[in-house]
Amino acid sequence: MNKRILVIDDESIPRDRLLRQLSAMGYDVLAEPDGARGLESFARRRPDIVLAEAAAPVLDGVEALRRVKALDPHVEVVLLCDGVSDGVAARALNLDAADLLAKPLGIGALRRALARVEARLASALLRGRDIELSEEPGAAVLRLLGGVTAQSEPFLARALLRARALERACVVLHFTRGASANGAGLSVLVRLLREARQVGVTVRLRGFSAGCLRAFDAAGLSGLAETRSPAPGREA
């Protein structure tokens, strides 16, 4: 699947040229003329990368960066600037911008910036490789392939956001054979499931063993999600 990029820029001519360049590079491209619309589009479509004009109207690029990162700390954001002041650069870097690019945007600079972004995405994917997102009728399914620990929290949180964006009736956390959760991992799951319940998301836990169920009960997970023990021999 091609990576999705959201471009936020109110200058139509350079924006259209940038969209053509990104499409030619194989990206699935979205575009919005200001930061407020860009934030709405991001919340709906969950792109992998955001290219935002630092001086975008309604909601400037730095503020859009802050709000996008609040929704998804692992999205990669590149700011496009006519001139980069020390203040803008410092704020952007403190908010974990992937890069700042000067306008007008040269194709070489764009390719180099996206190569750096792709490297960051690949690194995050490697760290989060123990979680797979899929769909089935009425549900978004997160398959947990390895151990859930304290270090899993940012990757599991992002996966839950993506699952919720699919707008299915519920989200299933499927523990595959060999998946496990230590004490810190159970605490992570409790926090994330509590947040899901607060926004009205139904979560089901599936695929776990009887021993895991006892641990879930002790941690309070059973009160936050539907639990269904697998039929004998059916654990994936």
Written overview of the protein:
This protein has 8 helices and 12 strands. By secondary structure, the chain is an alpha/beta fold. It folds into 2 domains: 124 residues, Rossmann fold; 98 residues, Transcription Regulator spoIIAA (2-Layer Sandwich), CATH 3.30.750. The strands form 3 sheets. Strands 2-1-3-4-5 form a 5-stranded parallel β-sheet, with helices on both faces. Helix 3 links the parallel strand 3 and strand 4. The two termini are 25 Å apart. The C terminus is likely disordered.
- Could you tell me the mean pLDDT? 83
Taken together, the total number of domains comes to 2
Order of helices and strands: EHEHEHEHEHEEEHEEHEHE
Q: How many separate helices?
A: 8
Poorly predicted residue ranges? 229-236
Name the quaternary structure.
single chain
| CATH homologous superfamily (4th level) name of the largest domain | Response regulator
Assigned CATH class of the largest domain: Alpha Beta
**Shape, principal axes of CA atoms:** elongated
Please give the alpha-carbon distance between the first and last residues.
25 Å
CATH architectural label of the largest domain: 3-Layer(aba) Sandwich
Number of strands: 12
Strand numbers in spatial order across the main sheet: 2-1-3-4-5
Helix vs. strand class: alpha/beta
Helix content: 40-55%
